[in-house]
Protein: Outer membrane vitamin B12 receptor protein
Organism: gut metagenome
Amino acid sequence: MPHLLHVFLQRGFFLLCFQPLTAWSQQPTLTDSLGTAEVTAQRPVTGISTNTPTQRLSLKDIRQRGITDTGDALRRLAGVTLRDYGGAGGLKTVSVRGLGAAHTAVTFDGICLGETRQGQVDLQRFSIDQLAAIGLQTLDSDQLLVPVRNLAAAVVQLQSIQTPQQQSTGGTVSLRQASFQTWNPACMFRKKWTDHTLLTFWGSWFWAENNYPFVVKNGVATQRLRRNNSRMQTTTLEANVRHELNRGSLEGKLFFYHNHRLLPGQVILYVNENHEVLTEQNAFAQVRWTQGWGKFQVFTAAKFNDDRSRYRNFDAQYPGGTIRQNYRQNEGYVTAGVGWEPTTWIATAYATDVTHATLRSNLKTDQRVNRTTWLQSLSLRLHQPAWNVTARLVGHLSYNDRKNGEAATEQRKLLPSITGAICLINRPVQLRLRAGWKESFRLPSFTEAYYDHLGSTSLKPERTRQLNAGITLQAAPTTWWRTLSLTIDGYTNRVKNRIVSVPYNLFVWRTINMGKVHTAGIDVVMENRWQPSSHHQLIWAVNYSFQRAADHTSRGSKNYGNQLPYTPRHLGATSLTWENPWLSLTAHASFAGLRWSTPEHTATTQLPAYQEWGFTAYRRFTLGRHQLEARADLINAFNHRYEVIRRYPMPGRAYKLAVQWDF
């Protein structure tokens, strides 16, 4: 987008907005009194009654657990390994159960976000204020009728704010201020156009200098420095429309994101200077229609995505003192499906997707590559009150085209899956067993297939086999112990044709298929809610993951059996919240075990374990028909120094203040 248009949007945002997302929803009433009788209901917990591991953080959970940003929310999900390059707004990608970020799809309001150049989505571009919920679906979808792209090995589900249809015109306005010169105003405005139509507009501006201090140790010498060249500025705009139909709905979304950031680079002894600049811009439009007729359910959706990035590096080693690389990728996507439930115990569904992606650049070696992908899925579910089984077959056909040179090979695959669950006890405790098996694969990204010297058009897709077995439990033990939920899932993953980059000679690397990875692990998720009185509530949430993700490529190699890079064996998070009428308080912590930065396990590649503690205080005030919420966060309270990615230090102790007004 031209500079003047970007400035106009940015200035226009400040004229139109001063508001955050939505009012925090109220705690559901769990007990109703009628005379001396008391009726107690269990609080529904996501993932208890599903065939596959499913986790979800609602807007209420995000507030109660002291979650400060999107990356922090992802750390609270079991099985997630977050790659974080540090700083507010820094790049954050997700690997689930050791499969790698390229196996993780990301959906926004039910439609997949495409990223064919790198193969992984930067989740930090989505503000926590922008979302009503964040979910994680592992193995397979628990829904029968979904777009086929939503059936990846793991799916991060982002849901934007969906205000109820009965609400009148209103909105919210918020301001966040944090350490290292961070400012983030945001606003949301909703307009009830008709009794069945709701319009929502959301906008945010983010600025951070990110010049946080860090320590470099070299034997007995210690340097105390500040992160240089780390400033970023982001503008995000979003518009939504939702029209309710009889047994259906029509939804549309427009999204715009512009980010200008300075890249700090790696911290190397006595070197803390970098002159790289990255400007990213993403815009997309999507529409979705769902409708039910008798025993049939249909949906269709379409999306167009435009993604641009401009990279510059100012250094004397380049001709003219600078290097400039511009990339533009476009993607068109359509999907449709139909579901049929002929009897009360049988349901079937068919869905199909077509995607066309292109990549262009200003490089002399620009390949002008295109990829067309056709996906189909056929699903069958048998269900009874006490059990259900779902079988699915996914067909994949992809065609690649390259203007200058050889294109990547055409791919055809059939991928089966089967999942099931049985309810052993339904009352007073709900106890279920579940199991599932699935085959999936991922295509090489455009970078892996075509990038000069590095890419290879002969690459085969990575193929995975996932096996999961678990137990779920939910209970309301007493009138004051309102919720006890527990899920335990054990799993194994097998990856063939793992795509890795290896040195071809002293200066050139090549991407090849050579890897095999075997992963075994366990995920535990628990939540407890105690309500000793009507105005006081204690909430304890915890998740823990053990994952043994080992290289099984060549039995005689020195790396055989080594844990994968940046994949800790132990990781998890916990939070404890006391909600009360005066000032609600939360203490939370996340931790990750020992890691290595390369496949070689040596003292120089080892990254020590770390834990980060934080504290949150918040209160909500009622001002007539309006509400005001104030919140303060202390992040990394004990100033622990650590790195998630080697030579990218994380910030130490920091604060974040926020105020939100609902009108």
About this structure: The two ends are 33 Å apart (CA to CA). Helices lie at 3-16, 59-64, 70-75, 446-450. Residues 61 and 480 are 20 Å apart (CA to CA). The domain at 3-25+40-662 is CATH 2.40.170.20 (Maltoporin; Chain A).
